[in-house]
Inverse folding.
């Protein structure tokens, strides 16, 4: 059996047997809880301003200046 997996735009074709499918499904199920917890920073500059941040990096540590 051939399995196509797409990750970050790359397609991986894997030849697996039936027993390996069960192991793969368990692995994906256990990792899926981490996928939901990953959040990317906002890409929209208006949204950054709304959150009180700045698109530029801070030049001084917090509490100084």
């Amino acid at each position: 059996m051939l399995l196509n997996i797409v990750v970050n735009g790359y397609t991986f074709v894997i030849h697996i047997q039936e027993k390996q499918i069960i192991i793969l499904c368990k692995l994906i199920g256990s990792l899926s809880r981490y996928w939901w917890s990953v959040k990317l920073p906002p890409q929209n500059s208006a949204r950054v301003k709304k959150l009180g941040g700045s698109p530029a990096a801070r030049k001084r540590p917090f509490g100084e200046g």
User: Anything to note?
Assistant: The two ends are 63 Å apart (CA to CA). Residues 54 and 61 are 14 Å apart (CA to CA). Residues 1-30 form one domain. The first helix runs from residue 18 to 37.
